[in-house]
Each structure stands twice: as structure tokens, then as C-alpha cells.
Amino acid sequence: MYKNFTPDKVNLTKYLFYTGKGGVGKTSTACATAVSLADQGKKVFLVSTDPASNLQDVFETELTGQGVPIKNVPNLMVANLDPIEAAEEYKESVVGPYRGKLPDVAIASMEEQLAGSCTVEIAAFNEFSRFITDEKMNKEYDYIIFDTAPTGHTLRMLQLPSAWDSFIDDSTHGASCLGQLSGLTEQKKMYEKAVQTLSDGDKTTLILVSRPEPSPLAEAARASKELKEIGVENQILIINGALENFDKTDDIAIAFYSKQKDAVKNIPNSLKTLDIYTLPLRAYNVAGVDNIRRLFTEDDVIEVEKVKEISDLPGLEKLVKDMYDTNKKVIFTMGKGGVGKTTIAAAIALGLSKMGKKVYLTTTDPAGHMSASTMGGENITVSNIDEAEELQKYRDEVIGKAKAANMSQNDIDYIIEDLESPCTQEIAVFRAFAEQVEKAEDGVVVIDTAPTGHTLLLLNSTESYHKEMERSNADIPDSVVNLLPRLQNQAETEVVIVALPEATPVFEALRLEADLKRAGIMNKWWVMNASLLATDTKDPFLRARANNEEKWIKRIAEDTKGNYVVIPWKK
Question: What is this structure's pTM?
Fold first, then answer.
């Protein structure tokens, strides 16, 4: 349907930003673009600001944040920035001056406000703004490529007048990421120039990378819309991993192809106006310069061994039995968007109901198509929470209080933008979940999403800080306050982490797990979902993909000491 992407067929600008959900292949595509342009004699600098970056593995070279030349690619320099480390340094630059001057509980609150994903992204933007605005680099290199782009939310924050002030004194919702920009005043001119360059279509191209699946395409559409709103309009879309040649006798391959075809056919309307390209699914790992060079060729040589057999892959019934035996009362499924949290939550609920438990399933399923009757469970009560509705309700409440407090329009604008942060959305939905948990004391509550440890710590630090200062600008419902300690009670609560058996989804899930541990929430079970290794596919391409899953499944098996399950890929 769409032509294959190759850099020589596209009118590329000097600055190229790749963006997309974790695991869609943006790093591989960015690397292949960099090598292709360098092979054409262009001088190229490739920069990664992705916390889950595997650039060192892709180039098989030890990298630094300053840039390292790549062997056998004479015109290419590659830098691997660590945004987590940069965020820690940035956090200390903001909080450090207050140590010893404010109470410890206030310092802890400030540190937690600066511990979220928004701060990591700000720190990353701080790093690559230097590359965008460096005149020497601008003259030395023909192309500067970034394998992660800032979100529209971050860029809108940077454009608000209040972003350059200190912490807003009277936060009306108390648990947020307010203040993550408070240490940036000295960098204001550099940021303004960086944002201006980003929105200049003659200088910058935003390359949205997706897989031919509904969730990554929806994420690409959201990112595209957000960035267009702040002027980044020069965009193209690459749909990566399209199954083109497949075994027409293999049921899994036929279903895999059909699912991809349906996703592309129903691509969000907002993406249809972009130039769209595809990249075929490859039967090899994109690692090493030779394989990077092959990505944009018509090379479909399959180098694959027989599918590795992992005997006795544990199924979901093992997890459900443990939940039943240990008499868990609250079960969350947690993971990045698109990994199957809702489906797994429903399956756990159904399994427990069949064992005689009274189950309350609370889901954010956007289609709202789950009900006790459709699931076939006699002991299940299903409630659907509308995330957009809860967020709007929360926004209205917070903005109403800000206006009632006679805050300046600049500060109100900042708060409105802050309400777009991931933390705020989690808080809004979590309040609705907390109400459901409180109502269901006589059974098991299964919930298909959980707040991150950062959000829980924000709620905790906000409550502690306000008690100390004998004031409260935030209305944290009793149901939320009561649920926080309950989540830390391992005897009662289980957070099940759901991931896909691939590098980036696993790394992202491991960060979620570490985040929960910071909040005192220990997780026992992992679900590796949509595994091709757990199917009986004979298709050579899918077999190659299945083989690549083995090391990630084995790693989680070891990390969890056997407390994991593997769910086969299903249409």
C-alpha cells in the first residue's frame, strides 16, 4: 500500500527527530538512516536520549555522551546521552540550594516532584538543545539525528511565561510535576532557539515510527497532534515491521498478517495526511553495521535456525492459583500502553470467579465492551472507568480552585498545561479506582491499571508536607489516602507487571518495577504477553522473531525466581 522508506527517496532536513512508543523500532530506523546518509558522503551526528537506548548494542561500540566515531562508517559520530543521570544532576541543581534551609519533609516533597518522567524529558531536552543550538556542530555536520523527540506537553511547558518562574506558591492540586522547569531560567534563550528550530519545517523533520498495530498507531497520532499544535508540522510516518512475505499455510502467519492489515486499513485519520512509508519485518537482529545497512535494502534473506524450544512455559492459571491461595484482595495489572493490561486483568478476574471468588473488575477499557455477561463469569461485577471523563472532572475541579484563589492568568495557564502531565492523569484515574476499591470489601478487586511509584510518592509527600505546614491546598480523597498503605501491604495487594518479550518493553517494565519499589510496593508476578515462542508457528520470519524472545523470557524467569507466565500471541 505504501512505498518502503529509504533516506535517498525523502527530502530530509538537517535535523531529524524520531519518535514513537517503546519497542516500535525508532532506534534501529534512526541508526539505519544515519549510516545510509554517512555512506552517501554526508557528515552525520546521531544522538540518543532514550532511557532504554540500545545504541551500544546496535553499533557494537562503547559510546559516550560526547560522541564516538563508528568503525567502518567514516562520516558518522554517535553519542549516547543518559537522561536518567542528567535528570539526577538537574534535580540536585534545583533542590541543592534549599538543603538545610527548608524542613526535610519539604525537601523530600521537592525531590519527588522532580523525580518523574516529565523531569527526565526536560533533562533530555536540556541535553539535545545544546546540539541544536551549537553553531560549531551546525557548520560541521550535514545531518544531526535524534532517536527520541520531546513531547508536545514538554514543549508547551517551555513556551509558558510561568515556566521561567520559581515554584508556584499556591499549587491548587498539590500532587503534580509543577516546578520541574524551575531551574531553567539561565537556559531560557537556548530553549527558545531550540523550540524555534524544531518548529521550522525547513530545518526539522519529525519522523513518527509505529508498528502496524492499533496502539502504536494511536500513540503516533497523539504525538503528531500534540506537536502540530506547537508548530512542529513537518512530519512523516514510518510503519515498521510489516510482514510482507509469509507462509500462506501457517495459521499464525495468516492471522498476524491480517491483524496488521486491519490496523493499517483503520489508521487514524489525522495520520492519513502525512507522507507514509513502510519497513518490512526483518528476520534478523538489527545489530552490527552490516545488518544496519541491510535494513533499507530489498534483502529478504532469512537466516534462521529451528525455533528454540523452551519446555513447560507457565500459563496464566499458575498466577491465578497463587492469587487464590494467598487470598489477595486487590490485584493491579501494570505496564506500558498496548501490552495487554486490560486483557490480562479480565483473564485473572475470570479465573478467580471460576474458582468461586466474588470479583469486582474495574477497567479503563476505552471501548467499554467488557461486562459480566460477555465474559461469562457468574461471580463478576464489571465497572468501566472513562479516563477522559475522570481527567476532565479533575481538571475542572483544579482549575475552578485556581480561579477562585485569584491566581494570575500565567499561573492558571501553567496549571492547565501541568494537568496534561502523565502524573496528573494517573491521579485523576486513581481517585476513581480508589472509590471502587472502597466499595468492594467483600471480594477481590481486579484493576487494569496502576499508578506509578512516582505518582504514589507524590500523593504521600503532598499529604505529609501539607500536614507539616498546617495547610492543605489539595483535596486528596480519604479513599485515596486509605488505599496507599493498602497497596504496600503484600499480604493483601499484588501488582502484576505485564510486558512483551522484547528489549524495550522489558526495560520499560523494569523501570516501572523499580519505581514501585521506591514507593514500598513489591511486585511478585510478571506476565510476558503476546509471545510467538509460545505458539506453533512455522513461518520463517515469525520463527526468527520467536527466537529473539527467548533471552527476555529467560531473564524474567531468573529475575522473578520463576514467578512469571507466558501468554501466546493471539489475534
Answer: 0.84
